What does this fold into?
Amino acid sequence: MLKIKAYDNEVEIQWCPECPNFGILQAFKSALTQLHKAPHEVCFVSGIGQGAKLPHYLNCNFFNGLHGRAIPVALGIQAVNPKMTTIVVTGDGDCYGEGGNHFLHALRRNPDITVVVHNNEIYALTKGQASPTTPLGEKRTLQTGGVEIAPLNMPAIAILTGCTFVARGFAGDVEHLKDILVRAVKHRGFSYVDVVQPCITWGTHPLSWYKERIFKLGDDYDPSDRKAALEGVLERDDTIPIGVLYEGLSKNIFADGFREKITKAPLTELKPLGKAEIDHIISGFAFGGE
It folds into this structure.
């Protein structure tokens, strides 16, 4: 029987003491245990940032790459080995800033991966500069006069672009976040979870400020209603809804067609080519005289 300690390792955690990232780490361990996913069946992919350090603290496969470039790597992993549970962990700067273009086009491609964004509305690793989600007018370390451009609303963009699983969690509610992650991993297709993760060092508001404004979507909320979900995430008030904002039927999974028409199977299951077969393929590209 899989136990949560299977995901423990001995790497020293570099986050600030009591950082909400610890809650996200615990939620992942609990979710993967509940899903009966053994460590060798899981691969985390990350870029750069405090959120991107999370895979270092788990006993499983992981790839730590360049700033904003986690999603392309995850697409490759899922295409080659669809049996691997592939999860991207990233921050709002890493994913929405440096990696924004990759995020948008991954929504269009619809790979069977889960993307979890630690959203503290700043670049926390580099001392609190404004990120793509920093509120308008907020004064930051470089934006001393206040942020002059409106923040991105990525849940709204994801719903508009056709993402079939869009959720928001809160790092201060581990059990609720765990339930969201379980649903996200189970969902076939691109699953996107934006996690409210206040920075206790460089953030504007303490964790208590968020706890006063967070509310869970109730049983009367219908996540299959795309129009209502979009209207909900576009509302600008002083409350923060958490839960599965939208979930629909996912079609045309990235790489499924390629595997069916070209390789006939995942690349990890194909028989290695011998030298004679490789030479034959190469000879097909030869040109010119004898």
About this structure: The longest helix spans residues 21-34.
